[in-house]
UniProtKB/TrEMBL annotation:
One of its GO terms (molecular function) is DNA binding. This is HU family DNA-binding protein. The keyword Amino-acid biosynthesis does not apply. It holds the Pfam family Bac_DNA_binding. Keywords: DNA condensation, DNA-binding. Belongs to the bacterial histone-like protein family. CDD domains: HU. It comes from Olivibacter oleidegradans.
Amino acid sequence: MNKADLITKIAADAGITKVQAEKALSSITNSVTTTLKKGESVSLIGFGTFTVGQRAARSGRNPNTGAVIKIKATKVPKFRPGKSLREAVASAKTKK
């Protein structure tokens, strides 16, 4: 499912227009992004929690030359699924 498919699904489920659904989805993603930029977390009970994690500085290799390079420490977004989401995915039937 891509963003356009999600907007169509939200509009159908909520009985609103696609324009309204797109504004709602944009508001959610912007709010999550803004909150994570502040270093805070976003918890959606049953769905999951978005947090900011730290990735330590480390050494790596340039795949073209094989030279050792230093990779700076950075902040990365993380997502931890909630219990309801984990259970829903675990109980879903797989397609063969």
